[in-house]
Amino acid sequence: MEPVELSGAGLAPLDAVALGQRRTAVRLSDDARKRMRESARVVAEVARRRPVYGRTTGVGANRDVLTSDPEHGARLLASHSTTGTTSYPKDVVRLGLLIRVNQLAAGGSGLEPAVADAIVGLLNDDDLPDLHRGGAIGTGDLGPLAELGLALGDVIDGTSALPLLSSNALTLAECCLAYVEAATLIEVVPLVGALTHVALRGNAEVYDVRVHEARPQPGQLRVARRMRELLDGLPMKPARIQDPFGLRAFAQVLGPAVDHSDALGNSVRIDINAAAENPLVAGDTVLHNGNWHAMPIALALDALRLSLHSVATLSTTRVANLVDPDYSGLSRFLASGAEASSGVMMIEYVAHDALAAVRSAAQPATLGTATLSRGAELHASFAPQAAVLTKQLLDALREVLASELVTATRAIRLAGLTPDDLSPAAVGPWLTDALAALPDDLADRSLREDLEIARGLLTQWGDRQVEHPAESG
After folding, report:
1. pTM of the predicted protein model
2. FRET pair for 201, CA 20 to 30 Å: which of 71, 82, 219, 271?
3. What is the CA radius of gyration of the chain?
4. Which domains does the chain have, with CATH numbers?
5. What is the DSSP string of 289-316?
6. No. of H helices and E strands in the chain?
């Protein structure tokens, strides 16, 4: 296969993740090479006339200290490579390097094409440096990118160290991965919700197109449309005129998560294609600026996590309804066999344990503050921390949804319903999957294996979805 060209434009988060996961060979486009060469010429010329931050000056509070020391760049990389001891996963490193090359291809850094070529060489040879967490607070991934600079060797000289560091590339890599996982998991929630709707004999009026056109929130509209696709034609009479919130407000709660997933995807898409450099080479001049500040993606991550907390909370309410005979019309805790059997009683505990983890991870990272470098840097977005919290939340959310899936499938099985009973509704084939995958033993036993199977099933279903929410809007 021919290498994929990186040009500094048009790279979508989903495509970036796919390139990294497949270890696809890449190259710098010819146009990008010209842009980089011209920006290097411009910054060298400007630096002869006036100070250029990090090139002819120190950094941070040392911005007012001029230097012509040829070893300045080497000392900068050495000092800034101070990090923690935890390595980034290799998939994050690979994706982060790919993103940094694409940003450099936009042509605003003042770096020579040889720097991008050296990073491309690491990618294509799968010779990834060991980069570590620590020191990144949403104002540039200084520590790990300094480690990258050291790994690049002689291609980085005294004038190119600071421009290499002027990026949130590793954080953006984790954002891309979190976005793709979130968008995929969000797409699976309606499948689980539709099975619960069947088990509880829900009232599908809540998804009527007229309801949602009366309040046309974009994500809500899309969720309601998906639920109609799954449930239209369901040959079951509703059990209630008005359902509990877990069914009645399904689209209204999942919809904002769809919207916030879109927002994260859009913010990340901008930044992985941006010349977010400080200083920025623009035309025939150099502009000192604050584009290293990652507040847009930090806020997008925080908002997504808060919206997903509500999705998780509503899922646990549906589990509560499923184990309650007043709503299911079945036995307490969907028990079968001897009197006082516990059935899926413990599933609720597992779900709320996972919900507690969701709640902890949902706390906004952007509430943090920082005063650094003798007051020269008085604010931070904490986007790296927000990205880590998002990954933690998604893991816990998957556990919550697995709990609902196990419980809904058991309720349908206990009610004696089969996929044929749901025809012609499109939810039938998903029930077939669930019934085939999950054990049919209804006796009291550990349900740990069932939950593990359900988590795997959610992943399989996510992989089978044709489109992600952010690409369909």
Report:
1. 0.94
2. 219
3. 26
4. 4-167 (1.10.275.10), 175-277+293-472 (1.20.200.10)
5. --TT--HHHHHHHHHHHHHHHHHHHHHH
6. 20, 4
